[in-house]
Amino acid sequence: MSIDLEILEALRWPLEALSLLGLIAMGLLIATSYGRVPRQVPHHFGITGRADRHGGRWILPFMGAIALAMYAAMSAGGGTLGLLTGSSTAKPGEAFLLVWMKAVLMLMLGHCVRSMIRVARGEAERMNMIVLLGLIALSLIPALAGVAK
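^ that's the sequence the OP posted. Answer follows.
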C-alpha cells in the first residue's frame, strides 16, 4: 500500500506548522517557567512515569537547545527550505517521513519538558505515560502505511 504523493505534499505544510508551533511553545514554556521551578527538577522518568532521577534545572534550556538542533537538522534533511521556496524534493516519501517525525518529536519533547516542570513544581506526581506512548505510536503510522515506498 502506498499513499499518493500529492496527499503527502499537502500534509507537509500543516506538519511543518505543527513542528514550528511545538518548538516555539516549548521555548516559551521553558522561558516563562525557568525562574519558578526549584533548583532540582526531574531528569528521568521510569516506566511508571515517576521521576527516578533529579538534577539541576539547567536541563530545561538544554532540552530546548536539543529540540532546536533536532528541528534544524530534520528541516535541512526533509527539504523544508525547498518547500518554502516552492522547489520539489527528489524523494517526497522520505521528506514526508522526516517532517512527520519532526512534528511528533517536537510534541514528545514538549510533553517531557512540561512533565519535568509540573513534577518539579509539585503540580503532578508523574509524567503521563499514556500520552508519551501515544506519541510513540503516532510516530510509527507513516512507516506502517508504507509512505517511503
